[in-house]
Design brief:
Elements lengths: L1 E6 L5 H6 L7 H7 L3 E4 L12 H9 L4 E7 L2 E2 L10 E2 L4 E2 H8 L3 E7 L1 H5 L12 E2 L3 E2 L2 E2 L16 E3 L6 H12 L15 H4 L10 H5 L28 H4 L34 E2 L2 E2 L8 H13 L3 H7 L16
Parallel strand pairs: 1-2, 1-3, 3-7, 7-11
Antiparallel strand pairs: 4-8, 5-6, 9-10, 12-13
Length: about 325
């Protein structure tokens, strides 16, 4: 399976994340599955004008293109020309190349939230008119029209994340190589359901604190970060705490709140990432699939039943009160 990987406007962090794949590493894994990179701007030796014959051969159909993978948002400015980002050595904008190559590909894959929905590069008033491949924020229709379908009949496959988990990228490529990623395996925003059917909340190490609504008040503390510190893991899709990063890590495991980086427009929540917006003292960002009245009733009961151990540890930077063993008297 031939993959052409283009890097557009972004930090390159999704490629850096991909290189952290382990057990096996990304090169051994993809090579063993028959996945071949025609070109990757950060990993291939060829650059600039040296790549033009390859791109021309793909564009003409001389070289079959199984997967067009795009990392980074597409800059459409100024005034829709795309000239804010020219593909080096080609004399053409990235916008032009994506629109030309996408119809030639069996599959089109957007890697990272910049490529999927615009992401960080579209923040701050979006002066460069950055958009995703098939979405502009929440709105269908980016560089490609909402009705675009690749030669396989699929819309753009949106492997969202900032950055993406390396396994999300490799698993998507392996599924495509096995011809085992039907439309039903994508959610309503084009994200692969193998990770998008989970919440970051699932398997979070702070779940015991969440259950009792025992909240941290500062970032260094052990308690749940939803009430005061902006965590939206109960709403954000991703299996970050199930499969872990680099073997065991995740944002919440490291003590930082989930900021919902797999979602459109996460980059501008209209409040600091580490603040929880509240109305009449009630957090606005409650779990999406629970009525607010039920949640508040359960929260009140949970707080009343919080064990002393959990309440004290929640506002500590380490476990100060360990679980006590029950001593049975005969």
């Amino acid at each position: 399976m031939n993959v052409l990987w283009l890097q557009s406007a972004g930090c390159g962090g999704c490629t850096m994340s991909l290189l952290c794949a382990e057990g096996p590493n990304v090169f051994d894994l993809l090579d063993g599955a028959g996945v071949d990179f025609l070109w990757h701007p950060a990993l291939s030796e060829a650059t600039g004008g040296e790549v033009l014959p390859l791109l021309s051969a793909v564009e003409s159909g001389e070289i079959a293109l199984d997967v067009l993978a795009i990392e980074g948002s597409i800059l459409t400015g100024p005034k829709g020309t795309g000239k804010f980002h020219m593909l080096s050595g080609t004399g053409r904008s990235m916008l032009d190349w994506v629109r030309s190559l996408a119809p030639k590909a069996r599959h089109v894959m957007a890697v990272g939230t910049c490529a999927t929905y615009g992401g960080i590069t579209s923040a701050g008033g979006n002066p460069a008119s950055a958009v995703g491949v098939q979405y502009d924020g929440h709105h269908p229709g980016g560089v490609l029209a909402p009705e675009f379908r690749s030669q396989s009949g699929l819309p753009v496959i949106n492997v969202a994340g900032c950055p993406t988990h390396p396994d999300w990228v490799t698993e998507t490529l392996l599924l495509l190589a096995a011809d085992d990623l039907p439309a039903a395996a994508l959610d309503e925003l084009g994200r692969p359901r193998f990770y998008a059917d989970h919440l970051v909340h699932h398997a979070c190490p702070k779940n015991e604190y969440y259950e009792y609504k025992a909240s941290a008040e500062e970032l260094s503390q052990l308690g749940c970060m939803m009430e005061h510190l902006g965590c939206v893991g109960t709403q954000a899709v991703g299996d970050c705490n199930i499969r872990g990063w680099n073997g065991e890590g995740s944002c919440t495991r490291a003590g930082y709140p989930c900021i919902n980086c797999t979602a459109p427009e996460f980059e501008e929540p209209n409040h600091p990432f580490t603040d929880t917006p509240k109305f009449a003292g009630i957090p606005v960002g409650l779990p999406t699939d629970m009525p607010k009245a039920w949640f508040m009733a359960l929260a009140s009961l949970s707080k009343a039943a919080t064990p002393k151990r959990i309440g004290q540890n929640a506002v500590s930077d380490r476990i100060k009160v360990p679980p006590q063993k029950t001593v049975r008297k005969s």
